[in-house]
């Protein structure tokens, strides 16, 4: 008898392209009597199309996003509100969402956890900008971190992984003027900032804790505002982040919110889950539809 019907959507360009991980994951599920369908993405956004078709078919209980945070966000977009369980096979570069939910990086353990059947209901964030709506499962950055994502070489990222971000950070610090933004929080308070991070969870840039009190299971997101135009102060904040002391920084303000609006006199770059997502002005709010996400027991 078939245990579960599971579709796996693989981004063949994610991370270091660990095809053997996907194969071992699929083999384990099949040995456990699951019926598994594997689909590879062919272009950016394809994972959303595939996930939507598979969810609409009503034939699959689980859809696995095999890739990094960008692939997970695309699959989430296709199945949000459908009742299909989103699973994660972390084979991307930073894999922040997998760290956040303590998903096993060992594919056999991961497959075994999926079969056990535990899941959690999460409320992703919705980004509205450039006339489009997109879903974000982990975090959105506006300002310098988005400039880094917009300009990082994907070839270098595939070759040296996360170290590529270090090189681009140095370049972006040199090139990017810290433009001022106006951040309206819940339509009430308005704050000034030169960089903003909106995060559903605690982790950032892999498995570093940026906002330890931020919990994926809560509806609201955390809004981190960096409020100085000084690049030296920004470097100090980055050092504090790596030492786990970001909240002690003088130019940092952190608030909880379910809706923010960001405007500026110029178009400021935005990244969502590590992928470039256009520019400001933007509104970010909690999705009205939830996601069911597989987690370890
Ligand atoms: N076949 C494809 N060709 C080119 N790009 C693709 C293809 N399939 C997916 N993509 C795009 O690849 C981008 C990066 O994917 P993803 O974020 O999953 O990997 P990553 O950047 O290595 O990992 P992370 O976000 O965890 O650092 C996404 O924007 C996605 O749309």
TrEMBL record:
Residues 1-132 form the DAGKc domain. InterPro entries: ATP-NAD_kinase_N, Diacylglycerol/lipid_kinase, Diacylglycerol_kinase_cat_dom, Lipid_Phosphate_FormReg, NAD/diacylglycerol_kinase_sf, YegS/DAGK_C. Keywords: ATP-binding, Kinase, Lipid biosynthesis, Lipid metabolism, Magnesium, Metal-binding, Nucleotide-binding, Phospholipid biosynthesis, Phospholipid metabolism, Transferase. GO terms for biological process: phospholipid biosynthetic process. One of its GO terms (molecular function) is kinase activity. GO terms for cellular component: plasma membrane. Its cofactor is Mg(2+). It holds the Pfam family YegS_C. This is Diacylglycerol kinase catalytic region.
């Amino acid at each position: 008898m078939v245990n579960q019907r599971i579709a796996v959507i693989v981004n063949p360009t994610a991370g270091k392209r660990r095809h053997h991980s996907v194969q071992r994951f699929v083999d384990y599920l099949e040995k456990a009597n699951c019926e598994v369908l594997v689909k590879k993405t062919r272009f950016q956004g394809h994972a959303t199309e595939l996930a939507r078709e598979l969810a609409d078919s009503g034939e699959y209980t689980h859809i696995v996003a095999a890739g990094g945070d960008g692939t997970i966000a695309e699959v989430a977009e296709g199945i949000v509100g459908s009742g299909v369980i989103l699973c994660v096979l972390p084979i991307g570069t930073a894999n922040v969402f997998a760290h956040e939910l303590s998903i096993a990086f060992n594919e056999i353990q991961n497959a075994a956890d999926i079969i056990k059947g535990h899941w959690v209901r999460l409320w992703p964030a919705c980004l509205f900008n450039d006339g489009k709506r997109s879903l974000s499962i982990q975090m959105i950055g506006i300002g310098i971190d988005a400039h880094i994502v917009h300009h990082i070489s994907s070839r270098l990222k595939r070759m040296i992984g996360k170290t590529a971000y270090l090189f681009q950070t140095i370049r972006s610090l040199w090139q990017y003027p810290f433009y001022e933004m106006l951040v309206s929080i819940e339509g009430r308070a308005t704050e000034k900032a030169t960089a903003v991070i909106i995060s559903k969870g605690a982790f950032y840039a892999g498995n570093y804790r940026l906002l330890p009190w931020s919990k994926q299971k809560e509806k609201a997101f955390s809004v981190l505002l960096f409020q100085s135009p000084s690049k030296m102060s920004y470097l100090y904040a980055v050092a504090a982040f790596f030492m786990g002391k970001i909240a002690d920084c003088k130019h940092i303000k952190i608030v909880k919110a379910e809706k923010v609006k960001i405007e500026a006199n110029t178009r400021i770059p935005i990244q969502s889950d590590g992928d470039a997502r256009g520019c400001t002005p933007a509104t970010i709010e909690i999705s009205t539809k939830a996601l069911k996400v597989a987690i370890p027991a």
